[in-house]
Amino acid sequence: MAIYGRHKLIFWFQMVVTWTVAVSVFGFVRHYGWPARMGFSPEYLIEPWFDLSLGVILGTGYFLIERGMNRQIFQRLSFLHWAALKSTLNLLLMLLLIAVAIVLYPYLNRSVAEDVTFREFLFSKLMFLVLGYFILVSLLITLFQRMHQKLGPGILGNMLLGRYHHPREEERIFLFVDMQSSTTIAEQLGHVAFSRLIQDCFADLTDTVVRHRAEIYQYVGDEVILCWKLPNGIRNNNCVAAYFQFVETLASRADYYDRTYGLQPVFKAGGHLGRTTVAEVGVLKRELAYHGDVLNTTARIQGKCNELEERLLISPALAGQLKLSQHYLLREHPPVELAGKRESLTVIGVQRPTPALASGAEVHPVG
């Protein structure tokens, strides 16, 4: 919870900084770019504490609106309905800004109270300019956030910087998370209801991705592929903890799934680490692609979950990088043959300890 709280704080701070900069830029351009005077001196618009005050108000308001609009109930709205609702909330925020500006500005420029009436101030050209500027900045922020959501955490920045314009090798951890008995469930529900189920499940994955610093590589049918750079995946056992966090989230919404679909979705997963080549591919619908044997091996490990009656299987290479024995119950399986692989591979089942084990009963670590 502390990790997620930190991300919310960072997001709030980003919004405050963004709007403070936007207000400062507006004041700078308004004062130095246009010689017109509208009954009061606009240089006061670039007073630092005034800009910061408006930045905090706008940033906090925008943060609260974004947090609310990202709730699943609103994400199910059509884009037009979603955009209309968000625009209404942004307009209310703008009215709050105008009210605060009317209160604060006379303290910066006494001539406002004498030379400009409330009505003149409210319907001045400057206020219409402020409204248009606010709408433009809001649209840019929304566009950036939509691109961030479309590409996933950590991807947009790398693409803007051209980090993977040329292929480069990295050590990565991959986790393939797949719905168990998906074919049977799809036949039972029908394709439309099954698609809604997948939407709900992967929406419930969002908090897990943020909390455990994962990157979403791909959604493939009823499967999602998560990945981490090595330091992020190892820290706090993120690559394993993410799976169990996802399981807990689904369990906490068991009543919803039972009521809506008549079942409780179960996911199995396989994890592995290794060298992979990362590169931007495509001209239209450009995206990052990972190439290397590590992906094939991870997929094969995940494919052994049903056979070995495990929900989470990882490779010894990944287990050796993590500190699991104090928090999880590990079970090493004899070497198994993986499709397409010449050599057999030992795989390790990872489970959350039962309450009895967690309270002091023996845990059997690997090795």
From TrEMBL:
| InterPro entries linked to this entry | A/G_cyclase, Nucleotide_cyclase
Q: What is this protein called?
A: Adenylate/guanylate cyclase domain-containing protein
User: Could you tell me the Gene Ontology terms of the biological process aspect for this record?
Assistant: cyclic nucleotide biosynthetic process; intracellular signal transduction
Q: Does the keyword Transmembrane helix apply?
A: yes
Q: What would be one Pfam family of this protein?
A: Guanylate_cyc
What is the native source organism of this protein? Neolewinella litorea
- Write down the Gene3D superfamilies for this protein, in alphabetical order: Nucleotide cyclase
Entries under CDD domains matching the protein: CHD
Q: Where are the transmembrane segments?
A: 9-29, 49-65, 77-106, 126-144
The reply to whether Repressor figures as a keyword in the UniProt entry is no
What keywords appear on the UniProt entry?
Answer: Membrane, Transmembrane, Transmembrane helix
Domain named Guanylate cyclase: which ranges? 173-302
| Gene Ontology molecular-function annotations | adenylate cyclase activity
